[in-house]
Description:
- The protein is built from seven helices and no strands.
- It is mainly alpha-helical.
- α4 (101-127) runs antiparallel to α5 (131-157) and α5 packs antiparallel against α6 (165-187).
- The model has no long low-confidence stretch (mean pLDDT 86).
Amino acid sequence: MEEPDSDRPDGSWFTAGLVLTAGGLIPSLVTCFFAKEVLAMDSRQRLVLFLVTDLMFALTSYSFLLIGEAFGRERLKGRAIELYPGPWKEPSGIRTLPKNFRKYLLALPASVGLFLPVATIVASYLWTDSGLLTATCLATYVAALLSQIWMEGAFVKRGSFMWPMVPVTHMIYRLWQLGRGSILVAALDGPPYLQYLHATLAIVWVLNFGAVMAWMPWLYRWHLQPKSSID
């Protein structure tokens, strides 16, 4: 017999969506509504604005993940909860990575997704007059990416089943960051290589998002669960 919704103790699922919308979406929408004012800002003011906006997203996404974790614990209250062993780790304790996964990780997310933007920021400051524009577009992007890496480590360390949701949550925002940066470069007549880099990064992360979605069932080990954990 199904329990009435009003008696269920796990209503936090909707709160998670509200939190993510309030702190992750609305600040970014405000910058869109006042796009002319943002473009008229001093370069340093614009950089600070984007850093604050992205910091709000980082704090919001962390809160969202904690709420999701609390939702599961509340729903399974009184039952033994198995800790998440980590990605690609079998019950035997052996970690079996997909073929060529390490090469892929080094070639795309690490080299192109992280090291190339950092190198571009440094080179722009040293040899061009577009250092602040590059930092505004890419330093905020790098900061959000490092925030994701930290959260992934924190959630897998605590054995949280919310770990696979960390890259998914950040991926959506990252595409917005790249779109924002590309528009800013075009509006301020920035160097063409910045436009090409934004397009390249967008392709890399959409490709990575597809890979994450393909292996999501295996990260959650759904193949080891013959029936739902909720009877």
